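sry for the spam today, last one i promise. struct tokens for design, 277 residues
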């Protein structure tokens, strides 16, 4: 059963492929049917087989595993997920890690997560730096609704705001933000049509592209806006793919951010570019 599932996932043309993905995802779907792996029986009942095949069928149609089961585990937090909202990526744990590292030693830190989606990065910051004030913004009202629901369920006092970038942040934190994080929609607009079906069909276009020719408009706006919102010594951290990391670093330097560097060498390959005011 598992071998057939892995073979089917590996041969799918509508989902993104990475090393070990088929084995990981088949096990995740099995866990939805059988519970934790340590409790798996040697054989599955007919009903369990039917349920697993139904879940696998949805995945082979392109539905992300997180959407199928309704949640994603992110730095130990079970973050609710639903269709139409950007699915939290485990690769973004590095972005949250960079923020947490810089916030922990500050007395009354303020953090802002731009394009927050379901709120995973903002919620993990609030969880790991409980003395921080944390804000999350997103242009999509449905994303903010889900992020607020996640915050209530997890009992995290994060303030989520519908906003295009930084526009709705309270004036009282202008020039006082310690860390600003951003996982931007950085796919050039003419490349969106080439994304795997699992992205194009289950996540809105605005979660993958900001509509610009190079996909860097939101990064430019965040870098420019950091001068107004970050305190001196505050940090901007942006997550992108390795091929876009040097472009982001150049945007940071053009916006007069200091100490710019590219971090991260995780298996999934994303990079986080950091710079300070």
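last one done:
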């Amino acid at each position: 059963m598992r071998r057939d599932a892995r073979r089917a996932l590996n041969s799918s043309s509508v989902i993104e492929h990475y090393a070990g993905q088929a084995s990981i995802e088949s096990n995740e779907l099995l866990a939805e049917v059988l519970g934790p792996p340590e409790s798996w029986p040697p054989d599955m009942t007919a009903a369990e087989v039917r349920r697993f095949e139904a879940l696998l069928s949805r995945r082979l149609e392109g539905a992300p595993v997180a959407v199928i089961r309704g949640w994603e585990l992110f730095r130990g937090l079970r973050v609710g997920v639903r269709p139409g909202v950007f699915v939290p990526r485990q690769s973004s744990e590095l972005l949250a890690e960079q923020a947490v590292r810089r916030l922990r030693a500050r007395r009354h830190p303020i953090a802002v997560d731009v394009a927050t989606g379901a709120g995973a990065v903002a919620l993990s910051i609030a969880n790991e730096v409980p003395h921080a004030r944390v804000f999350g913004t997103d242009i999509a009202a449905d994303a903010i609704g889900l992020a607020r629901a996640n915050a209530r369920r997890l009992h995290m006092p994060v303030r989520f705001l519908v906003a295009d970038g930084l526009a709705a942040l309270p004036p009282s934190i202008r020039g006082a933000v310690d860390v600003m994080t951003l996982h931007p929609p950085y796919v050039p607009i003419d490349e969106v049509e080439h994304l795997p079906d699992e992205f194009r069909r289950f996540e809105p276009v605005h979660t993958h592209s900001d509509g610009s020719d190079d996909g860097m408009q939101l990064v430019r706006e965040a870098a420019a806006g950091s001068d107004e919102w970050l305190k001196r010594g505050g940090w901007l951290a942006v997550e992108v793919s390795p091929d876009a990391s040097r472009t982001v670093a150049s945007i940071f330097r053009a916006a007069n951010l200091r100490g710019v560097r590219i971090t991260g060498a995780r298996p999934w390959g994303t990079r986080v570019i950091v710079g300070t005011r």
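The chain has two domains: 2-61, 86-276. ok im logging off now
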